[in-house]
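Progress report, Aim 2. The chain analyzed during this reporting quarter is listed below.
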Amino acid sequence: MEPSAVPTPPARRAPLHAEVRPILLVEDNPMDADLTLRALARRKLANPVLLARDGEQALAHLARWDAGEVPPLLILLDLKLPRIDGLEVLRQCKAHPRWQAIPVVVLTSSADDADIRAAYALGVNSYIVKPVDFDKFLEVAGHIELYWCALNELPR
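Predicted structure tokens for the chain:
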């Protein structure tokens, strides 16, 4: 071996926590979904954002993750969804033995105390009432990104 040559370690796959994992946005309102996607895009978020338009589509992701699709880093969940409501989506995510550790942030227009209590009782990690003002929403999106995508450590 030449003195300047350095052996290259064998290639190995990065651990799951080191991969750029998607964010799952569960939002049925097209205007709110667009607002959220634009806010996250303005933050130049490295994580791709997947969109589920109702609770049924959101829960279909559980089977895809079980089949080997990369699970999300974070789930942003609206509560008022067609087909299956957000609280049921939250209940099933937190009851799943493999995916219960995925952080779920409720991002909803509901400031109803009963919704907040129910979400926390089911294990939500954070509950955020959507700001109406776009600039304030950008600020909230920035806080979500910084905390959940950069600072928060997930189990390995």
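The chain has five helices and five strands. The chain has one domain: 21-149. These observations will guide the mutagenesis work planned for the next reporting period.
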